[in-house]
Amino acid sequence: MILKNYKGFFFLVASLLMVITAFIQTGCGVYRFKDVSIPDTIKVVKVNIIQNKASYVNPSLAPKLTEALKQKIVSQTKMTQTNGDNADWEINCTITTYSFSTSGISNQRVNTNRLSVGVHIDIDDKRAQKVHKYDVSRSFDYSGSMALQQAEQSLESEMLRSLSDDIFNRIFSNW
């Protein structure tokens, strides 16, 4: 009877030690949440206004995407944003591709068109004195009967959400 109580006690102690060890190991070096990992030395970030250097320019995309990215960083990280020179990371993005193509034909008529957007990302890591470069791209299909301006309006919220998610995930998934 006493031996059974000792086995239960030892099992409880061993379980507690494993849980404590897990907490200690995840608390060192990098903090993580929502599948995001950021080196613990990075506390302040500067997100510069996204530049639009695509051959076709949607004038509202760059400023709105800049704000969407800033909001995503604020809501999903513990990082502080700055406009000054005290940033640990400076994020620079450029819209490099903004193009249209036909993606579906039915009965010899355009059935579906595709808008493709590409963004180049440079992260200037001031602490490591290193620049990380990434590219993301996303395609958005729309009805072949829509004019370009109609498609841009109807796709705007999806483009902002998807592109800011893709940029965010690309920046914060490699650590």
From TrEMBL:
One Gene Ontology term, aspect cellular component: outer membrane
Domain of life, per lineage: Bacteria
Classification via Pfam families: LptE
InterPro entries, per database record: LPS_assembly_LptE (IPR007485)
Name of this chain's protein: Lipopolysaccharide-assembly
UniProt-listed GO biological process terms: Gram-negative-bacterium-type cell outer membrane assembly
